[in-house]
Amino acid sequence: MDLLPAQEAAKIYHTNYVRNSRAIGVMWAVFTICFAIITVVVFIQPHWIGDSVNTPQAGYFGLFHYCIGNALTSELTCKGSVLDFASIPSPAFRTAMFFVGTSMLLVVGTMVCFSLFFFCNAGSVYKICAWMQLASAVLMVMGCMIYPDGWDAEQVKTMCGQRTDKYTLGNCTVRWAYILAIISILDALLLAFLSFTLGNRQDKLLPDEFEVEGAGES
Q: Which residues of 54-89 are buried (b: 16+ CB within 10 A; e: fewer)?
């Protein structure tokens, strides 16, 4: 028996709905991978703050690694390791490193969750990933807010001058890794919103108007 025109239209709508959802899902996955790369770069790069033409010493600082120039030889002396908390110049830097590092791990965990699409309901997986990305954004915000609290460390003052204090950078400047961390917060929020939207769309892949052929037969 031929389908009624309304049923044919519903099937076409359903097909397009599924195709569009999958295309947006692929785009979300690609941007999630890009976001993961950004968070890894933000975490490992020591270019959160750095010298300027007015600083007493050359150098730059990251979350845990930093380099300061020698006044006599102009050579950079680098210290700090993620595995050696004592080498990190400020408790605020250590706290910021913890939050940013956890944010990075959550994003990497989101990519691991991609494998769940083969075993679990897609809508539930999208929502799990959305909460992880939202938590990642919150942790990145906390890391970015706490980091300037460590600018009063003696090592930072050596490079940036004695006018440097908490949330006051003195003669130094904010570098690209810090700016990238702030941008990643917006990225995480957008991805989380998109993931929530995809999760809700997956719950409604079969429109209410769609009636399977023969369903009305008893």
A: ebbbbbbbbbbbbbbbeeeeeeeeeebebeeeeebb
Answer for the pair 174, 160: CB distance below 8 angstroms, yes or no.
no
In this predicted structure, the answer to whether residue 135 has a pLDDT above a threshold of 70 is yes
Q: Give the rounded distance of the alpha carbon of 149 from its chain centre.
A: 22
Instruction: Look up residue 217 and give its two tokens.
Output: 């037969």
Question: Residues 134-161: what's their mean pLDDT?
Answer: 95
CB 159 within 8 A of CB 54: no
Q: How confident is the model at residue 162 (pLDDT cuts 50, 70, 90)?
A: confident
HSE at residue 5, side-chain half, CA atoms within 13 A, is: 0
| Angle (CA) 137 91 95, round 5° | 20
Distance between CA atoms of 130 and 118, rounded to whole angstroms? 18
